[in-house]
Amino acid sequence: MYKFGLIGYPLGHSISAVIQHAGLQDIGLEGSYEAFETKPEDLLERLKFFKHNDFNGFNITIPLKTIIYPYLDDIDEKAGIVGCVNTVKINSDKSLAGSNTDIYGFKSAIPKNIVLRGKSAAILGTGGAARAAVAGLSELGISHIDFYTRNIINSNQVLTFLREKFRNISFNVYQIQPPKNLSDISILINATPIGMRGYMMDEMPIFIQDLETLPKDAVVYDIIYNPTKTLLLQQAERLGLQTISGLDMLIYQAQKSIELWTGKTPDTKVMKIAALEAL
Ligand code: NAP
Question: Average of pLDDT values for 134-140?
Fold first, then answer.
């Protein structure tokens, strides 16, 4: 029987186990997927536990996505590009291979008829999900990204890193708070936790007046998956803008994790149905 896990802290609201079980069932594989709350100081012990108990792989969430780097034997190109690992395969020799499936998840959730080549994006937040979004947007040919952050000084390091990695994209960074004009933006992405269940769920990461400045054909993409329709997405819909929920990103990144672990590709439809039933 295959064994998989999820590590991070806290894991209270995670629906990953439900999605992964549906995916494993779909490919006809008998396997377990369990959440193991793990604080940074307990990471080494958790990795030993996985190896000694013949786990095949695990996912990683906040706050371990970068902290895990020194423990990995191999990191693939995608994880190297964003400096963030969310999937680890435990090989038969017990070596650990790190990947980032958030990039695939982010990109795959964008419907194929949305053309972003040569366009401009705005991203709220500069954390791990924001970096995965940049990599996904780069693959889709975006040419400019404006970041909005609560602390410009803290984001300098990230911006230097991204400018170095993505030379085909120009970047600017602004303070998130004063109202802004988004009239030249084709896609607005929320990569902060503002609007998430259990953390400022009744708030928006930007002002409604900001949303109103977006062009009528702009897309609003909220990386948050619970609730599936955040206040930001509700307001964007009210304005007639096209919206994308973070649930699709979550499903696609889970699909890619299973593919990396088993070589088989589960159907995202069954995974999404399981997720919606659990939310
Ligand atoms: P992270 O690395 O901690 O980054 C969070 C970002 O949001 C940081 O830039 C942080 O700013 C900013 N932020 C946090 N609270 C804020 C506030 N009150 N006001 C303004 N900015 C704030 O987290 P992450 O991994 O990128 O995750 C971000 C969100 O994406 C979470 O809700 C997570 O659940 C979701 N996510 C979804 C998926 C999916 O598959 N759908 C995948 C990954 C993540 P500072 O730098 O100043 O702290």
Answer: 97
Tens digit of each residue's pLDDT (9 = 90 or more) over 143-176: 999 999 999 998 999 999 999 999 999 999 999 9
Is 129 close to ligand 1, i.e. is its CB under 6 Å away? yes
Per DSSP bridges, beta strands 144-149 and 96-99 are unpaired
Rg from Cα positions in the chain: 19
**List of domains in the chain:** 2-100+248-278 (3.40.50.10860), 104-247 (3.40.50.720)
Stretch 1-22: mean pLDDT, rounded? 93
> According to DSSP H, which parts of 199-245 are helical?
208-212, 231-238
Structure token pair of residue 55: 């786990």
Catalytic: 107? no
pLDDT at 83: 87
Q: How far is the CA of 230 from the centre of ligand 1 (A)?
A: 14
Asked if pLDDT for residue 178 goes beyond 90, the answer is: no
Do residues 23 and 255 make contact, with C-beta atoms less than 8 angstroms apart?
yes
C-alpha neighbours within 13 Å on the C-beta side of residue 156: 3
For residue 7, the cross-strand partners are 36, 60
pLDDT given at position 269: 97
Q: What is the distance in A from the centroid of ligand 1 to the CA of 219?
A: 19
End-to-end Cα separation, the chain, in angstroms: 28
